[in-house]
Amino acid sequence: MKPLDREGRSRALCLTALSAGLFLLFWLFPLTGDDWFREALGASLHSPLDLFRAVAGRWATVNGRILGNVLAYAAGSRPLLRAGMRTAFTLALVLLLARITGLDRWQGLLICAAGALTIPREMFCQIYPWAAGFFNYVPPVVLILAGLELARPVLDGSPLQESPGRGAALFLVGLSQPLFVENDALCALCAAGVLVVWYRWEQKRWSPCLLALLLGCVLGTSLLFASPSYRLIAGGDGAYRAGLSGGLSGLAAMARTNLPEVVRCYILACPVLYWGLTVLALLLWMWEDRPWHDRLLAAALFLSCGWLDQGRSRLLLAAALWWLFLTAALWRWLPGRTLRARALFLWLGAPVAAAPLLFVDPIGPRCLFLSYILMLAAGGVMLRALGPERLPPRVLGLGAIALTAAVSCSYLTIYSPLHQVEIQRSQLLAQALASGADQAVLPPYEHGGWLWDADSAAKMETRYYHDAPGDLKIRFSAPDQWLEV
């Protein structure tokens, strides 16, 4: 085996440090909300057949998210496996972001890791700490990015190297992508279709590998929506509902209702992202001497971004203008066909992933995770176009390390105290079960919005009980009030 060069050793060290840091962070995350249901279910699964039966039962009654349920149920009641799986998927997300954006040196890996973790707080708490959210929303993004990486020559304008191995890999990626979340499934299907048509238009021939990807997406999406649960959603009779029961007028009414929330989660709640993208675009504009109308575009982009940051009236109009101006900036200011095509494909994919959310209710920030990552990837392509390697290696390396360390340390300081509360809760619950008590009083999480559905007594009672769920009542009270309660 060839010994690693200096860059290889740096990448290996970087990946090792990232793996250790991510595992520690995921280990600190407490169980919340629906995770307790999966803990109870996971403890009852003792074989692959048990897992198959549980997933098949959910497909027939609740949702068609086959692979999301497989991962979440398999990780239930297995803390080491759960933290390891989360670490593996997050590391894969970082690696694929680095590959697709071209920031694949070790400094780029650190920048991509910081970007993937620096998401709005209300999105973060529904994606990373909440195991149910993680296993439904992170793996499909990883698979979609994996499909784009396998098909990257198409975005670069090069012929795709056709082979049975690549075709099989693209088919499996296409089949797996839709079996998690509905809007991500539709986005993956659209992306596969665009890649097939794009390649046919540019290369004047069909690609068997891309057709395999499209076929996989069609089959996976069909399997997802074949679940009987979606009949309830379409009819508005379940916990989730769509506007289909009202026809076109019902869809239009739901879209009008959901549009402000979708735009808020997509753009308005992400100031770090929209300011970061604006600054990168303006740096691209300043990089070369450009005509006067580009100066007008730069001014319009900056002013629309400032309008977004004011948080006042007509924010939907501000968001639309900012998105249009940045789209024009990507088209005009990115150098070369390769970077321009890659950035625009990622950038335009973000609203495609968000669009289905206009027609379902309820929705939450977690549903926009794919859109966020696609916009982040477009920003990474912009950063790559600026040529960060032109900076002195020591400055770039120290900056990337400092950025990632700051992000990691901020999360560790938030979740370490919450982990201590979780340990205290576990001890109190164990004492209540051992003593035969019919009630357990637990300290609440003081999480400042960094946990989703944190204090859910009814859901915890499905995991902690004497003879049947609910016979140990759980309530929450601050320790200094325990004597008064």
Compact description:
This protein is an all-alpha fold and 485 residues long. The protein folds into two domains: 6-411, no CATH class; 422-481, no CATH class. 71% of the residues lie in helices and 2% in strands.
Show the helix and strand layout.
Blueprint: H1 6-28, H2 35-43, H3 48-61, H4 66-75, H5 79-101, H6 106-117, H7 121-127, H8 131-150, H9 152-156, H10 164-176, H11 182-203, H12 208-225, H13 229-235, E1 241-242, H14 247-268, H15 271-287, H16 292-310, H17 315-333, H18 337-354, E2 360-361, H19 369-385, H20 393-435, E3 439-442, H21 457-460, E4 473-476
Parallel strand pairs: 3-4
Antiparallel strand pairs: 1-2
Helix pairs in contact: 1-5, 1-6, 1-20, 2-4, 3-4, 4-8, 5-6, 5-8, 5-19, 6-20, 8-10, 10-12, 11-12, 11-18, 15-16, 15-17, 15-19, 16-17, 17-18, 18-19
Descriptive report:
The chain has 485 residues and is mainly α. The chain folds into two domains: 6-411, no CATH class; 422-481, no CATH class. Helix content is 71%, strand content 2%. It has 21 helices and four strands. The protein has helices at residues 6-28, 35-43, 48-61, 66-75, 79-101, 106-117, 121-127, 131-150, 152-156, 164-176, 182-203, 208-225, 229-235, 247-268, 271-287, 292-310, 315-333, 337-354, 369-385, 393-435, 457-460; strands spanning 241-242, 360-361, 439-442, 473-476. A two-stranded antiparallel sheet has the order 1-2. It has a two-stranded parallel ribbon with strand order 3-4. Helix 21 links the parallel strand 3 and strand 4 (473-476). The longest helix is centred in the C-terminal third of the chain and has 43 residues, at 393-435.
